[in-house]
Design brief:
Layout lengths: L1 H16 L17 H5 L29 E8 L5 E11 L3 E18 L5 E19 L4 E14 L2 E16 L4 E15 L11 E9 L5 E7 L14 E10 L2 E7 L1 H6 L11 E9 L2 E11 L2 E11 L1
Antiparallel strand pairs: 1-2, 1-14, 2-3, 3-4, 4-5, 5-6, 6-7, 7-8, 8-9, 9-10, 10-11, 11-12, 12-13, 13-14
């Protein structure tokens, strides 16, 4: 019954947002919120780990095993743009979990000028997302999750408000070391526009699989993105690839490749490492520390730090 309800919810949200088009707002929701996902190409909805920040990518990746965990994240993006996140998760019985989280992005300060190019001062631009998560084990291997997000944006004297929902499913076969996930992300609407015309949210449907080798400490992930705007002529740009080296439960290294980023940031002068990312993590006592980097442009390297612990 619960599985049928989740499927119906997916179809309902997909029907609501199907007609959305035009320029998107709250685009920061597409940026990575997890150091592990950042290292694996920026998008991942299938990796099963005790990492609360993965719930930002797929709410079904949160669970009762993360009882009392807190995660803090910070990313130095391109051109002085800064992002941060915080998330707290709590078990709800033996099969459920809930959590609250927040994400913010600061685009820095901008000069405010007149039509005559006279400087009047400066203004800042920030976006904020406040989230509430819930997940539940539908069976031994299936888990469903939902998150409700309140969105707020401030740009000089203009503000915008939005409301969005994430819905996800996760499948995990521990014996085969195989997992899969699907997530409908950022489905909602801009309730208050900056001006008179409202803009759509950057909604997306993503699906992926992860498989760890039986006799080697490697796990491979493939994630399909932008499934709401499928283009067979550019099929390669819809996939994100990642590989992890997992010698123990307390240490990991990851490498990712995102063909869309590589293609979008291609330069005539060369950008051979565009679209590549890497990272690693280590557990020190009760703290999990992660760091990741990604190359978007020869002069723009993105660095992300993550810290998780159990209270």
């Amino acid at each position: 019954m619960r599985r049928s309800v989740c499927i119906l919810l997916f179809l309902l949200i997909l029907h609501v947002v199907r007609a959305q088009d035009g320029e998107e707002t709250f685009i920061f929701l597409r940026y990575p919120a997890s150091a592990r996902a950042h290292a694996l190409g920026g998008d991942n909805v299938s990796v099963v780990e005790p990492d609360p920040s993965l719930a930002f990518h797929n709410p079904a990746l949160a669970g009762a095993e993360m009882d009392g965990m807190i995660n803090l994240g910070y990313m130095n993006f391109v051109a002085g743009i800064r992002l941060g996140s915080a998330l707290y998760t709590r078990a709800l019985g033996e099969k459920g979990a809930w959590g609250v989280g927040a994400r913010f992005i600061s685009y820095g300060s901008f000069k405010q000028t007149t039509q005559e190019n006279l400087t009047e001062g400066e203004f800042s631009v920030e976006d904020v997302s406040l989230s509430a998560f819930y997940s539940h084990d539908l069976s031994e291997r299936w888990r469903g999750g939902l998150s409700l997000k309140f969105l707020y944006s401030s740009m000089e004297s203009y503000t915008s408000i939005g409301l969005a929902v994430d819905a996800g499913l996760s499948y995990y076969d521990r014996e085969r070391a195989f997992s899969a996930g699907i997530a409908l992300k950022h489905a909602g609407a801009q309730l208050k526009a900056y001006y008179d015309q409202r803009q759509p949210l950057p909604w997306d449907l993503q699906a992926g699989i992860s498989k760890r080798l039986a006799h080697a400490p490697f796990r491979f992930s493939v994630t399909a993105t932008y499934l709401t705007a499928w283009d067979f002529s550019r099929i390669g740009k819809h996939f994100v690839f990642g590989i992890e080296f997992l010698p123990s439960d307390n240490f990991w290294l990851g490498l990712g490749y995102n063909p869309k980023i590589q293609s979008d940031m291609k330069l005539q002068s060369g950008n051979s490492l565009g679209g590549f990312s890497a990272g690693g993590g280590i557990k020190i006592r009760t703290f999990d520390v992660g760091v990741s980097i990604a190359r978007y442009h020869p002069s723009a390297l993105s660095l992300m730090l993550s810290l998780s612990t159990s209270l």
